[in-house]
Amino acid sequence: MENNRTDNTQQVRSSFSAWIGELREFMKGRFSLDEDQAQRDEVVAAISKGVEFRGVNLWVLIFATMIASLGLNVNSAAVIIGAMLISPIMGPIMGVGLSLGISDFDLLKKSLRNLTLMFIVAIITSTVYFFISPLSSNSSELLARTVPTTYDVLIALFGGLAGIVAQTRQDRTSTVIPGVAIATALIPPLCTAGFGLATGQFKFFFGAFYLFFINSVFIALATYAMVRFLKYEKKAFIDKGRERTVKRLMMVITLVTFIPSVVIGFHMVRVSVFEAVADKYVAQVFNFPHTRVIECNKYYAQGKKPSQIELLLVGEPLGGEVIENARTQMRSFGLEETELVVRQANTEDKIDVASLQQSYKELLEEKNRRIGEMASQLKRYRVTNVEVDDISREVGAMMENIGAISLTKGITFDVKGTPGDTTLVCVVTPRDPAAPIDRETLSRWLKVRTKVENVKLFVEP
């Protein structure tokens, strides 16, 4: 019986191992990049061709920069997307990553040279455009390209991976490359940098250039990583001394370029995590029925200066015990090293709520007054039909000689077109033309009945 149990255990283990092996082969086949893979020389030739900026590529870059600048200027996302689609800016950046991956120093020099040329041409084009453009407001599309975030880094990294994978396929006519161009958004930051130079707002220039640099480095890093993952053969050198020199130089370039960018990327991740945690803390802890947080500023630690959360509150003032209790809760959110600054109505930076209420009250009264004036004018100038049917019956009962009556209310204008008083025009048709009609009594009665002072009475012959 013991032998049967041992045999069953071995059979289960054998079946499980076989199932694991099949699953591994299945997953390997599904995620393999060997299918439809182009030859190394073919991929290098294709990327090297896209690196060069001369002739058509250079003019397309200028036109794409102008289109993107127009899109940023008029705040049109559709126009900006169109510019990103036609921009050939991805070529030199992927060339840098590929050259580092296969140790091709000549391709690296060519890529860096063309990347510098591309940067200069795009900056000059956008600067000239924004310098002569009559529109100079800071649109939302411009402002969005001045502060890089963690998401920009991740988009550039995964966009670069998708781009190089598409470039290593035999069929390069897919929509991957245009999609990567849209997602990574390389040309709009350059145009925003040109806007900063043209308008003298250098914080725009440095912020946008920083975003472009981060995107470019992580696209090149993704290209380098995928080339090494696909085990592309490195370039062979006949002169071994030159090979060692080139490898050392490229290693230095790689470290100088990528390591600071990775450090910056991790810093941006930490900032994003801090801001998310701070928002969660404020939403949960400062949730009071009669007090509202109208402003929340978050400052991540810089040097010896600790992180800080600054809140501006309105409504019922919070006591010192409540604020101190809120500070003690920061530890449970991982914010024990963060300073909390609370500004509310009874502090030096107080908001005069009574003054605000009085201002709003005065503004509301002024609006109501103007609405009343406009309603009065509308009532005065509006031409309306009076209640002729009721008045005709009343007049017929009051004066037997009136056979018919016509009433019209309107505005009297002088020859200069200036409106005057409202006038009631009354035309009376008598039953017996020979019998008299008491005009004075009828006029007084019409003034009271219609509430119109100016009555013109006409009796048909």
The ordered string of helix (H) and strand (E) elements is HHHHHHHHHHHHEEHEHHEEHE
**Amino- and carboxy-terminal Cα gap:** 136 Å
Structural class: mainly alpha
Shape: elongated
The residue-averaged pLDDT reads 78
| Biggest sheet statistics | 3 strands, mixed
Strand content: 5-15%
Helix percent band: 55-70%
Q: Uncertain runs with pLDDT below 50, 5 residues or more?
A: none
- Determine Rg (CA atoms, Å): 40 Å
Individual helix count: 16
The counted number of beta strands is 6
Q: What strand line-up does the widest sheet have?
A: 1-2-3
Primary descriptors:
single chain, 461 residues, mainly alpha, three-stranded mixed beta sheet, 16 helices, 6 strands, elongated
Structure description:
It is a single chain. The chain is mainly alpha-helical. 63% of the residues lie in helices and 11% in strands. It has 16 helices and 6 strands. The protein has helices at residues 2-31, 40-51, 56-73, 77-86, 90-102, 105-132, 140-143, 150-167, 176-184, 187-199, 202-229, 240-285, 320-328, 353-381, 388-398, 439-450; strands at 291-299, 308-315, 339-343, 402-413, 419-430, 454-459. A 3-stranded mixed sheet has the order 1-2-3, with helices on one face. A 3-stranded mixed sheet has the order 4-5-6, with helices on one face. Strand 2, helix 13 and strand 3 (339-343) form a beta-alpha-beta unit. Helix 3 runs antiparallel to helix 4 (77-86) and helix 5 packs antiparallel against helix 6. The radius of gyration is 40 Å and the shape is elongated. It starts with a helix and ends with a strand. The model has no long low-confidence stretch (mean pLDDT 78).
